[in-house]
Amino acid sequence: MSPEELLAAWHAQQTAFIEFRDQRVRAMLEVLAAVKPQDRPLRVLDLGCGPGSLCDAVADRFPDAEVVGVDRDPILLRLGRDTNRHGERMRLVDLDLADPGWAQQLGPERFDAAVSATALHWLSPAELAALYVALPQVLNPGGVFLNADHLYFDDTAESFLREVAETERERFRLSAIEAGAMTWDAWWDAARSMPGWEAEAREWERRWADKSPTVKVSLEFHLSALRAAGFVETSHIYLSLSHIYRWFDDVVVFARLP
Predict the structure, then answer these.
(1) Can you give the pTM of this predicted structure?
(2) Quick check: 246 pLDDT over 70?
(3) DSSP string covering 118-173
């Protein structure tokens, strides 16, 4: 399997978990278009970029944009670098967002927007709140933050909706797998077996050896933490598909700096 084939399989596998992935990316791109500076290229930071899928979408939509993605996964970073179609406009950086000093390690550059997709749920609630506090250090005044993720319904207060959402997501996942998408485990087995990627596979095993599930947080937690960090207009963008304006618990969180 070539890196390009592995990336295509990643997209198919991710779509199996994210029912309307293209639509939520489109919603994010529309916001970026609204904040794009008139006198210089748009600068975007992707938090937990994986192989650079969202970076790639931004660079395609804005041909002069400069995009920096940060992630800690050595295999996904290798995949993103090996399949980068945008040259120096797209740069992927090995950085741990759980490290309190991540913003300083990124350097002095500032961005018009920070984005993330299906990634920040890997952080603990304390790490996520700390990341939001640090975000203003890397954004320009008026900069925006967009985070697309499944923000699960509460087990107690929203048990019915949670059950419906999980049932629908599993139905969608199984349908995608029947159509040819790889399972999560099968994809990672293929990625760790890529010829020439032995060093990345060893580092992957070392970094994630002690990884444990994190506590899921609500939409309200995200919005409250962003407001506490100094953001204004904290809200969420509904995902529009015909007459559907939010797909159960799949949400794009929005916040803007003064």
Answers:
(1) 0.90
(2) no
(3) S-GGGS-HHHHHHHHHHGGGTEEEEEEEEEEEE-PPPTTTTHHHHHHHHHHHHHHH
